[in-house]
Amino acid sequence: MPIQQSDVLYTAVATAENGRDGRVATDDGRLDVVVNPPEEMGGSGTGTNPEQLFAAGYSACFQGALGVVARRAGADVTGSTVTAKVGIGKNADGFGIVVEISAHIPKADAATAQALVEQAHQVCPYSKATRGDITVTLA
């Protein structure tokens, strides 16, 4: 269910110059990076790229969601990490992305960890926003 504008708690604003071969900066000056396509896509690979930025945001958001569901379940996720692998490739419409989310939860057995990851995928705003549009694999 979409949120209403009156329910927005925070808005990030970023502006890109020259697309995948330029610069991206936030309005508050906290992020200002050179972006270049990776070498695999014909770029120099000297800067970061949109897929890396998406992976960083998704992994951080998913880690937060994991903490929320762990607290609800009374599970300990201390020392856990979440890794997002974001791939880009050609599809029928031009290009699309795929994501693999993997979590390492050292204080949980395999079944509990899997359940927590699946629950986090249901509440993570990035997962909700991409559901049905990209393939997301959980591990």
From TrEMBL:
Q: Which InterPro entries match?
A: KH_dom-like_a/b, OHR, OsmC/Ohr_fam, OsmC/Ohrsf
What Gene Ontology biological process does one annotation of this record name?
Answer: response to oxidative stress
Q: Name one Pfam family in it.
A: OsmC
Q: Which domain of life is it from?
A: Bacteria
* SUPFAM superfamilies documented for this protein: OsmC-like
Q: Member of which family?
A: Belongs to the OsmC/Ohr family.
What name has this protein been given in UniProt? Answer: Organic hydroperoxide resistance protein
**Species for this entry:** Streptomyces cadmiisoli
